[in-house]
Amino acid sequence: MLVIKRIHVKMRLKAGEEQRATAERVHGFYADKCPVYRSLKGSIAITTELVLEQ
């Protein structure tokens, strides 16, 4: 039986350096608004990474 214990999400955002502060701020709180994250967070470790691309 396969059991998922952790998930790592790598988000690639095309944005300029001038939007970095906004992107990092939103990245910091978006998960609490996501219904999928909220339903899984008690049983699966979920981490995220934000990568800005030009």
Structure, explained:
The protein is of the alpha+beta class and 54 residues long. It has one domain (6-53). Helix content is 30%, strand content 33%. It has two helices and two strands, in the order βααβ. It has helices at residues 20-29, 35-40; strands spanning 6-14, 45-53. A two-stranded parallel sheet has the order 1-2. The longest helix has 10 residues, at 20-29. The N and C termini lie far apart (42 Å). The mean pLDDT is 93.
- Helices, by number, come to 2
Relative helix content: 25-40%
The string of secondary-structure elements, in order, is EHHE
Using only C-alpha atoms, the radius of gyration works out to 13 Å
Name the quaternary structure.
single chain
Overall SS class: alpha+beta
Terminal-residue CA separation: 42 Å
Overall tally of domains: 1
Estimate what percentage of residues fall within beta strands.
Answer: 25-35%
Reported for the largest beta sheet, the result is: 2 strands, parallel
- Strand elements, count: 2
User: Which spans of ≥5 residues are poorly predicted at pLDDT below 50?
Assistant: none
Shape: elongated
Write out the strand line-up for the largest beta sheet, numbering strands in chain order. Answer: 1-2
Q: On the 0-100 scale, what is the average pLDDT?
A: 93
What's the topology here?
Layout: E1 6-14, H1 20-29, H2 35-40, E2 45-53
Parallel strand pairs: 1-2
How is this structure best summarized?
By secondary structure, the protein is of the alpha+beta class.
Which structural traits does this protein have?
single chain, 54 residues, alpha+beta, two-stranded parallel sheet, 2 strands, 30% helix
